[in-house]
Amino acid sequence: MALWGGRFSDGPADAVFALSRSVHFDWRLAPYDLRSSLAHLEILESSGLLKPEIATSIRGALKELIAEVAAGKFLAIDSDEDVHSALERGLTEKLGEIGGSLRAGRSRNDQVTTDLRLYAIDHMLEVATQILQLQKSLIAKASEYGDAPAPGFTHLQHAQPILFGHEIAKHAHAFSRDLDRISDWLARASVSPLGSGALAGSSLPLSPEKTAKALGFASSAANSIDAVSDRDYVAEALFILAMIGSHLSRIGEEWCIWATTEYGWAKVADAYSTGSSIMPQKKNPDMAELARGKAGRLVGNLTALLTTLKGLPFAYNRDLQEDKEPLFDSIDTVLLVLPAVTGMIATTDFDREKMALAAPLGFSLATEIADYLVRANIPFAHAHEAAGKCVALCESSGRQLHQLTDAELAHIHPSLLPDVRDVLTVQGALASRTTFGGTAPSSFAAQINGLSADIEVLSKKFHDKRAAFSAMMGA
Ligand code: ARG
Questions:
Q1: Does residue 10 carry a pLDDT above 90?
Q2: 149-154 and 191-192 strand pairing
């Protein structure tokens, strides 16, 4: 049903309607559109713009539509342009011409961005909940391997030994930052555009502050022109989702590497692997690869919207209809990948023995020699030089650092005494990294306690926010 046409002598050409139409993707805004219509109705009624009997029938019809949309009984049809026109058709089918009353004091310009904000808040809260599940899975796996030594890498070359649990736990911190970002974003997204009308506000006695409160927003927009054209909250959400995608992609890459025959560390569960149609022996970490690959489209969606927004004149322009598909796709993508990665992590076993054997390879204990000399008050530049000479001698004579003789050590540096061999063990190297955030078992245990406590607090916080949002939607 067209929401305009009075001044036109002809309907839109087929190609125009086809290009205009958005209902095939914006239909998912229907529950939020109906909820904000209820809030708008309250104001029209309380300000005397709608008679109580009319308001009561419209309220009844809106509630019916809420149930019918949820049950899939009321659907958009081919002639509907967008979600707003489809739902007004629904109201008019039930009520006759009073179905159009809700348009008073409201434009699709403030309506669409109110709906999209509600959609975004609802779904970013769901993303947060899924991230918390992923973090729990990471912490459980990190704790399981909290006593397992492994080589740590820089430049993909052996660097220093680490606890494998420390390696796994690092990902949980990246997702904690994503949760922080979601919290910060929620505060900025929580501004209601409703009441801004087409761009200039309204001459009717509306109360944007009251509708804002009814819809759970923290405040109402202070500039109606900004309100209808601001899509910062979409761009920021797309950035957060792209960042989450980037974090997931780095997990994916690690799992792919660790599952290679050459590494042989990760045994990915059958349920999270796929086979090959031609090579019967194959077991591929496709979930890890998809986690890695999906990051591309998440970055693409962010880029697409920023490009649309750049240089766009104020206030509403139809270009803004392009805000929805990138957001929907990024939300769908992240919500698809998060549970798969959570499950993949929970069900992967690691080969402790292989990782432990690899831990001292590549002269990864050379830093221990340098630190030993620093403790004997040798300037680090000299200590580094001496440790490097030890590595060179080992390389040319096919030995490991602890196999150098007392005389060779003393020759390289007079302060390299035989007891330097005490620090040339993986366990010794690990145990000595006791700084806050270091890989020593004691620091690791403190890290896991801190993470678990933070996650406990955040789980409650996001649970309460979701409960409040559902209560608002059901009111
Ligand atoms: N479908 C439109 C959108 O998504 C709704 C707003 C249309 N407003 C207008 N004045 N044409 O942005």
A1: no
A2: unpaired
